[in-house]
Amino acid sequence: MDVTPERLLDVGFDAVEAAAPPAPAPLAARVATAATSARPAADAGWSAGNGRLTALQAFLQTATEVADMLDALSPADWSRGTGGGAGQTVHDMAVHLVGVERYLLGQLGVRAPFDAPERRHHTPATRQAAAELLDEPGPIVARTWWREVLAVAAACGRAGPDRPVQYHDIPGTVRSLMTIRTFEVWTHGEDITRAVGLGRNPLDGPRLALMSGELIAVLPFALALSGQARPGATARLELTGPGGGEYLVPLALGEVPGEPAVTITTPVIDICRLAANRIAAADLPVSVTGDVALVEPVLVAAGALAMD
Amino acid sequence: MPGVEGRALGDRELVARIAAGDTAALAEVYRRYSCLVLGLARRVTGDQALAEDVTQEVFVYLWDQPGRFDPSRGTLRSWLGVLAHRRSVDLVRRESRRSRVEARCEPDPGAPDTDDVVTAGWIGGRVREAIDKLPAEQREAVVLAYFGGRTYRQVATELSIPEGTAKSRLRLALGKLDELLRPALDGQDAPAWT
Known about the structure:
The structure holds 2 protein chains of 2 kinds. By secondary structure, chain A is an alpha+beta fold. Chain A folds into 2 domains: 149 residues, Four Helix Bundle (Hemerythrin (Met), subunit A), CATH 1.20.120; 97 residues, SCP2 sterol-binding domain (Nonspecific Lipid-transfer Protein, Chain A), CATH 3.30.1050.10. Chain A is 50% helix and 10% strand. Chain A has 10 helices and 6 strands. In chain A, the strands form 2 sheets. Chain A has a 4-stranded mixed sheet. In chain A, strands 1-2 form a two-stranded antiparallel ribbon. In chain A, strand 1 and strand 2 form a beta hairpin. The longest helix of chain A has 23 residues. Chain B is an all-alpha fold. Chain B has 2 domains: 120 residues, Rna Polymerase Sigma Factor, Chain: A, CATH 1.10.1740; 74 residues, Arc Repressor Mutant, subunit A. In chain B, 70% of the residues lie in helices and 0% in strands. Chain B is built from 9 helices and no strands. In chain B, helix 8 packs across helix 9. Classes of the chains: A alpha+beta, B mainly alpha. At the A-B interface, helix 1, helix 2, helix 3 and helix 6 of A face helix 1, helix 2, helix 3, helix 4 and helix 6 of B.
């Protein structure tokens, strides 16, 4: 137990709180009205999820976990290597995260956009966007990233989930953008935990369901992009574990699912890691029934949209 | 506020949701901390209506400027508490100046100047008074830790006592401070600003 000024302040606050009667009921409504007059509430589209986790909430939950982890790093942790990806060290990785949020703020029209039309521009452009942080101490980078996360949260809240937005050469909506960012922040969070020797963060069911659902939705696009389309064929994907589910996927863009020619069963978390380029298709634990020739195109496409 | 998956959200995540414009997150922060904010404001202002104004101002400020709260530097509870205290002090100053102008009279030169007293920080003053009442061995430990920012290990080294003893003195000191501060903050000797 350390006695900090904050701990002593808490002692005083405990005493105030213990003696204070509850706030009068009308005050809560008055505060809510005054708040939304000062700044409007989020676009109504975000509350249409009927109690399901929204992509924006998933992003903020994941960013919170990574931010808490960054706050707990020792000075030595910041210079540990991550073994590739967008940065060579934990520090580089955090600078990269700042750059990505700034790129998003440009795409959302909050800041001046910068030129990064294709996925191959992702790493260099985002590094350039946060270049002033390259020599700053890790905690400054972490604090800057958190402020940019809040700016992204505000911009996405205002924009609503259905507004079209481009992520390099991937067309989508704010909802899909937030799902992709959940993917990326989780992936980079895992890169950092691995670098500093912490356990992996396997994510919970609601977020895995969100991410795998997005992956399934873009799979026909990814098949086309990677030249792996198989017109007329359908695959059944059985994703196991919390957040898993069964999906019928047409193996060509614009088609509707038909009778599945193959069933691929794999853990949902591992296909998410494949999509993030953190596990090779050859290492993915799969069981297959049906036309095995259709497995490779599906797995190649699943990893085709990874940024770094 | 339990999330959709039934977990309780921490302060950082709630503030992030507030940044996104989530009114349910603001309602949850209000539910957790309005009692403290209103209680502090009432003690400083001595007036229920002014205290409610301060409470509104504090939560609207959080809603409008969520990025001002830095989770790496302390808890949301402390941040809101300090903000409530500052805003209350500002309000008392404004009210005091207005009263003076309206009364068209000079303050009693023999009385302590309201601004000075307020600036000194009423809660800080109560905490310091309580520290003075601690037994000497607890006081020196808590002063090192509080004013010197030492950890209990550093306190042990500086006082040449075992770490366990330092820990126990600090624990006893905090318990005693809690006892001393409760009545002091219970409104009996709260400054009469109005």
